[in-house]
Write a structure and sequence with these properties.
heterotetramer, A mainly alpha (110), B alpha/beta (98), C alpha/beta (130), D alpha/beta (135), B: 98 residues, alpha/beta, Hypothetical Protein Ychn, Chain: A, 4 helices, globular, C: 130 residues, five-stranded parallel β-sheet, 37% helix
Chain lengths: 110, 98, 130, 135
């Protein structure tokens, strides 16, 4: 499967995750979100950018509880809770935000 | 604690490490290629001689490797898998020196 | 007493799977319970039904399957390790867009949490590997 | 599962030649969801796992060494490194990554996670555990 966008081809897997993470850009993120009937606003981008920075530094996507803790520390308690994150990413912040953010697909562990 | 060692003492430091970690109430069980350490006359005998722990070797693995009972170092006991289970049950935990 | 066993190597190259099998059987024979056998690292390769050893050798995979069927032993293959090495059940194959699955009878694919749970719930965890 | 057990992850292998270290680290991270009392031990070649300056780009493999820096976030705060293993390999604590955690009970002060201790001491800590995982 693939996404065709602005003359570029982005290969994806069955669930729409990018095959080549280095291809990621904001356009493809917006496109993937729109496919899920989701429009990415500043609040979504705050989380996506945080995830991308976390991944850049540690080479893993953080577990949801680590994500909420870290977001709370950085952006305040009103955002550092799973209710807020699920309101932004109803399919689950780990899955959905990682997909839009160009992070690897969670293996489905635990 | 029960310790298991599954490597020949001639290719790995597992046995040496295991013996230096084992406390005096512990037991060490040699399995797989670890049973080569049970043969007398080799350099590994010195490692075992310094050990205060109870020493065991798994007989199916000894037999598979042609190590007969008369070639074993002194003080070493031979057990089967039933004995392995008994040792694991008797000690509070098992450390596998893989 | 409740035992769990961890297997870290695949069949035939390393004795670990054989040792783990004989140990698990001995645990059952002694009247203890086997809570789970967890396959990790290359140990996930014990869970493919495509294994076809020569007739004059033991069938490591079939032996584990028999244990699962006869004694209801829970054989769990780690999903993350299995994905890396191409071990899949029907769900995993579908999720990852593969056209075949190969999990052997009696094995199931699940997460690493199953290993930690085994460590918490069992009285003894015994590890076999390289 | 109300029980809290003392669990030690024993790391005795170098990081890139085999996959044990990477997959071992994955167990540690996933395991934190169960809120047990965990620690890690680095013995023998295991000390190479947390050596500074690992760069796998030219080797074409995933570099998971930065992931050890996330252990503090996951509340894995006790990383015991065996002194004898460091010495045998001509290493000192300065060759290791400066891994830290923030201490919740001390106004989130940043503290080192790595503790270099001698074998005798580490063997006592090992003996006090309930479950040992080896990778």
């Amino acid at each position: 499967m693939a996404i065709e966008l602005n003359g570029k081809t982005y290969e994806t897997d069955e669930e729409g995750y990018l095959a080549d993470l280095s291809q990621w850009d904001e356009e493809v993120a917006n496109h993937m979100a729109s496919e899920d009937d989701c429009e990415l606003g500043d609040e979504h981008w705050e989380v996506i950018n945080f995830l991308r920075e976390y991944y850049e530094e540690y080479q893993i996507a953080p577990a949801v509880r680590i994500l909420t803790k870290a977001i709370g520390k950085k952006m305040g308690k009103d955002k550092g809770n799973s209710k807020y994150l699920y309101s932004l990413f109803p399919y689950g912040p780990a899955k959905q935000a990682c997909k839009y953010g160009g992070l690897p697909k969670p293996t489905g562990c635990v | 604690m029960l310790h298991t060692v599954n490597k020949s003492p001639y290719c790995s430091d597992s046995l040496r490490l295991c013996i230096s970690y084992a406390g005096k109430d512990d037991a060490v069980l040699l399995i797989e290629d670890g049973v080569y350490a049970a043969m007398c006359g080799g350099n590994s005998e010195a490692i075992l001689q310094g050990a205060e722990v109870a020493l065991y070797a798994l007989w199916p693995d000894l037999q598979a490797r042609g190590i007969s009972e008369d070639k074993l170092v002194d003080g070493l006991k031979v057990v089967g898998y039933d004995g392995f289970v008994e040792l694991a049950a008797k000690h509070s935990k098992v450390q596998s020196w893989l | 007493m409740k035992f769990s066993v961890m297997v870290n190597e695949g069949p035939y190259n390393h004795q670990a799977s054989d040792s783990a099998y004989h140990f698990t059987k001995a645990v059952l024979q002694a009247g203890h319970e086997v809570f789970r056998v967890f396959f990790y690292h290359d140990g996930v390769n014990n869970g493919t039904r495509l294994t076809t050893p020569p007739q004059d050798d033991r069938n490591v995979v079939a032996r584990w399957s028999e244990l699962a069927v006869e004694h209801k032993v829970d054989l769990v293959v780690c999903v993350a390790a299995a994905q890396r090495r191409g071990i899949a059940d029907a769900d995993e194959a579908k999720r990852n867009g593969k056209n075949a699955d190969n999990i052997a009878e009696g094995f199931r694919i699940s997460g690493l949490g199953q290993l930690i749970e085994a460590g918490i719930v069992s009285d003894r965890l015994v590890e076999f590997g390289d | 599962m109300p029980t809290v057990k003392k669990m030690m992850y024993v790391n005795r292998r170098a990081p890139h030649g085999t996959g044990y270290a990477l997959e071992g680290l994955e167990v540690v991270l996933i395991g934190t969801a169960f809120e047990q009392e965990v620690c890690m031990a680095f013995i023998g070649d295991g000390v190479y796992q947390i050596m500074q300056g690992q760069d796998t780009r030219a080797a074409g493999m995933k570099n998971f060494s930065p992931t050890y820096k996330a252990l503090g976030d996951y509340d894995v705060t006790r990383l015991y490194v065996e002194q004898e293993s460091l010495s045998e390999r001509g290493l000192s604590v300065d060759d290791l990554m400066p891994l830290t955690y923030e201490d919740e009970d001390d106004d989130w002060a940043e503290k080192p996670s790595v503790q270099v201790i001698v074998r005798k001491e580490l063997s006592q800590i090992m003996a006090a555990q309930d479950v040992l995982f080896n990778f």
